[in-house]
């Protein structure tokens, strides 16, 4: 009769039979991302100059409203840049946390720092919307890029903590882990480049931020697969 003990692995992974601990962390993070994404829209203001504009017969109401709406285009650019940057990061955050099994202290702290940056995003977005087309545009764009530099650094810390042997799931998909590591390895440096570019061209800095979320959107994965 075969020995049952001999068939068992000599050193079973400590997380194989432990329940997954990251559910609350992911749910809380989803809430912060959702609130930050929602708050971005509050900077899109309704034009209130229209009643005065249509007081004269010479002004067509529809044309006047269209001019007021299009004059607010810096707000639309700032909103779309921040919205899609956070949306793509939320998707990658889900992928990272799905590969983790245990909430280590490093994972909790790094996730908290990331959410700090995410929750701040509506503020620099509003500053960019109001000032990017003014002589103060360089400072506004630099402030915006500086915020995303902080987020990029904290996201790297989060990924490092999630993929550490103390947290990573035994069934984590290693190709997904390497993809996330590769795509975000130079993120902070790209945002630093955008920060420096802001003092030369505010629009150039925002263009770099836009290209970054487009780049990372192209690396988004679906539901993370697990190795068996």
Describe the structure.
The protein has 228 residues and is mainly alpha-helical. It has a domain at 74-217: Four Helix Bundle (Hemerythrin (Met), subunit A) (Up-down Bundle), CATH 1.20.120. The chain is built from 11 helices and no strands. Helix 10 (187-198) packs antiparallel against helix 11. The longest helix is centred in the middle third of the chain and has 26 residues, at 73-98. The relative contact order is 0.13.
Mind sketching the topology for me?
Elements: H1 4-7, H2 23-40, H3 50-53, H4 61-70, H5 73-98, H6 105-120, H7 122-131, H8 137-162, H9 174-184, H10 187-198, H11 202-217
Distance between the termini: 29 Å
CATH architecture of the domain at 74-217, please?
A: Up-down Bundle
Radius of gyration: 23 Å
**Broad shape:** elongated
Uncertain regions spanning at least 5 consecutive residues: 1-16, 223-228
Helix percent band: 55-70%
- As an assembly, this protein is single chain
Q: Report the sheet with the most strands, covering strand number, pairing sense and barrel closure.
A: none
Q: Class by helix and strand content?
A: mainly alpha
Q: How many DSSP H or I helices? A: 11
Name of the CATH first level of the domain at 74-217? Mainly Alpha
- Overall residue-averaged pLDDT value: 81
The amount of beta strand, in percent, is: under 5%
Element-level helix/strand string: HHHHHHHHHHH
């Amino acid at each position: 009769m075969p020995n049952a003990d001999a068939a068992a692995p000599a050193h079973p992974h400590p997380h194989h039979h432990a329940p997954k601990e990251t559910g609350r962390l992911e749910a809380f993070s989803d809430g912060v991302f959702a609130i930050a994404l929602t708050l971005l829209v509050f900077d899109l203001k309704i034009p209130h100059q229209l009643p005065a504009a249509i007081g004269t017969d010479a002004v067509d109401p529809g044309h006047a409203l269209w001019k007021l709406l299009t004059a607010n285009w810096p707000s639309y650019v700032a909103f779309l840049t921040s919205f899609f940057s956070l949306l793509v990061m939320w998707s990658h955050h889900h992928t990272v946390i799905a590969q983790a099994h245990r909430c280590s202290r490093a994972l909790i702290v790094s996730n908290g720092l990331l959410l700090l940056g995410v929750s701040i995003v509506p503020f620099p977005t509003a500053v960019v919307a109001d000032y990017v087309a003014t002589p103060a545009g360089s400072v506004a764009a630099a402030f915006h890029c500086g915020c995303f530099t902080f987020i990029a650094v904290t996201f790297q810390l989060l990924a490092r903590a999630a993929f550490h042997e103390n947290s990573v799931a035994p069934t984590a998909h290693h190709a997904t882990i390497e993809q996330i590591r590769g795509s975000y390895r130079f993120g902070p440096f790209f945002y630093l480049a955008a920060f420096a570019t802001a003092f030369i061209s505010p629009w150039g800095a925002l263009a770099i931020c836009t290209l970054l979320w487009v780049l990372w959107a192209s690396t988004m994965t679906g539901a993370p697969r697990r190795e068996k």
